[in-house]
Design a protein that fits this description.
mainly alpha; 10 helices; globular; disordered N terminus
Length: 203
């Protein structure tokens, strides 16, 4: 990672898959993301900060920024109707990792993510309607990802004293986004109740 970061070119900035490659990310790559997540488990502030900057290394690598960049690449090419189950699983694991590096809170990681456009990426995922005809078969997976997105936003705001952080979150994930989400969930629950009542004549 440090070698790739040092080169600084757009194409080699990350030693991570780009473009269509995330759809082929195997269990080994997901295991690596899970390993990084577990290193911060239990709100381990020391490790959370270490991911951002390694003062004891000759070359320091901002792992948090690198993972966010990969998250951006995943969402940029995200096509729910065409992507494999592996792509969804990687997205979920990336979100789980980003949540873990923030919770506690770790204000340094929160600010790195917020001020580098993490909420814009989340907004793209929240804007997807899981129940439209094109995505209906993927609805459970999309809902799982959107749930993680909301938890990620909560993690970004947890314990923050810098007023710029919530302002940036609201600017990039406007309140109407959550109004739409609530309305969508409410409509879906009512639809489910109607279907169940038709199956049970006693209701």
């Amino acid at each position: 990672l440090a070698d790739q970061q040092e080169r600084g070119s757009e194409k080699t900035h990350l030693h991570l898959p780009r473009g269509g490659a995330p759809t082929r990310a195997g269990p080994g790559f997901r295991a690596l993301l899970r390993f990084l997540q577990l290193m911060c488990e239990g709100h381990h502030l020391g490790m959370q900060n270490y991911f951002r900057s390694q003062g004891d290394n000759f070359h320091s690598v901002n792992v948090v920024a690198l993972v966010q960049h990969y998250f951006s690449e995943l969402v940029l090419d995200f096509e729910p109707e065409n992507d494999s189950d592996s792509k969804f699983e990687v997205l979920e694991q990336v979100l789980a990792l980003l949540i873990e590096v923030c919770q506690g809170p770790c204000t340094g990681n929160q600010q790195i993510l917020v001020f580098n456009g993490a909420c814009k990426i989340v907004q793209k995922l929240l804007a997807i309607d899981p129940f439209c005809d094109s995505f209906r078969e993927r609805a459970p997976q999309l809902l799982s990802i959107q749930k993680l997105c909301v938890i990620f936003l909560q993690a970004l705001l947890e314990g923050q004293q810098d007023v710029r952080v919530p302002l940036r979150v609201i600017h990039e994930c406007p309140v109407p986004t959550f109004d739409i989400l609530l309305s969508r969930m409410s409509w879906r629950n009512k639809e489910h109740e109607v279907i169940m009542s038709r199956k049970d004549p006693s209701k």
